[in-house]
Amino acid sequence: MPKIKIHRSVEEILIMAASVVAASTVLPFAIYRYFHGQYTIALVEVLAVFIVASIGLLVWKTRDTTYTSTALSAFILAGLVLLNYLIDSSIFIWTYPIIMTVYFLNPAKRSALLVIPTLLALFPLMYIEKTTIEFASAIVTVIITLVFSHLVSGKIRQQNERLQNLINYDGLTGALNRRSLDDRLDLLQSLYFRHKAPGSNIVSVIIFDIDDFKMINDTRGHLEGDKILINLTKYIKKMIRKTDEFYRYGGEEFVVIVNGSNLYKAGELAEKIRAAIEETELLKDLTVTASFGVAEIQSLEESQSWLARADKALYRAKRAGKNRVYLANPEKVNDFEKDYENYKKEKSQA
User: Fold this and answer.
1) Is pTM beyond 0.70 here?
2) What's the CA gap between 68 and 54, in Å, rounded?
């Protein structure tokens, strides 16, 4: 049985880590308060530990980060307000690290929408329980922390987006690159392995290669060859759905991930792309053709084996005369035209 890798995103790891840290930080206080007879507060803190830990577990199970990061942040802030009013304003000191944690987990605008109402709820208590100078100091230091966290969070996310673009996108065509493809296939294979319900997480890959591209480069020059790749990328992006993904695999080879589509549906798209490329003038006075291989995701298969099946189908299409689509499955590789006719017959009889 092949080893299926379960890849975690940075966001997932951060939220699960924050859940563990928050739960392990609050639990000792809950135990302390229980042994000192503060049962109501101890119960609230135990409940907080349970909810925070549950959010971390939810991320581990569902891999959702957007809603869980917001939920975790909102709950931590609500707990901060509640404990300040239940105990006393000495708990206010936790406001500073909590503000930074919320900005660490969420985009700057969403963090501000969560943090500002929390501060407005805390200031009346601070005004009542603190001296004028203590209250003023608290307001000033919290505002400084808030503004600093907001600016730094926004800057870090901008830099991360730029870095991700450099890492994940092909510099020539603007398509996603091979590194992104490898990570995405690993993730899709992990999801398919974790959720084995029939029909769930079905996805197929299309890999295609421009026919005789070396000859085009030799006769028209590499700059003209680059223009073909750029124009092809723009054209394919307009043809595929928003839910599909387009990658430059290397050289003149490209991959389309067709989400929610089985082998035959992906084969239909591949044939549509093949015909469009043949009919489109990607360069003045020059038409090109491409050969395609298609493979559907399978259980207990490593992501590279999945892509390799599509790649083998592609090279069978090349050897069969180029400018055609071949389908791959664990048992055989068929010419798309013949196999698609059988598929249409079965579909019409259903």
Assistant:
1) no
2) 10
Q: Could you please state the CATH topology (level 3) that the domain comprising 178-349 is classified under.
A: Alpha-Beta Plaits (3.30.70)
| Sheet strand arrangement including 245-250 | 245-250, 253-259, 203-210, 290-296, 325-328, 333-335
> Which ranges in the chain are annotated with CATH 3.30.70.270?
178-349
Residue of 12, 45, 252, 268 marked catalytic: 252
Residue 4 or residue 100, greater confidence: 100
Distance, in Å, from the CA atom of 196 to the CA atom of 259, rounded to the nearest integer, reads 16
Burial code (b: 16+ CB inside 10 Å, e: under 16) for 195-211 equals: eeeeeebbbbbbbbbbb
- Reading the block at residue 251, the tokens are 């050289």
Residue with tokens 């969420």: 106
* pLDDT 10s digits, 176-223: 999 889 889 988 888 787 665 555 678 999 999 999 999 988 888 889
252 is catalytic: yes
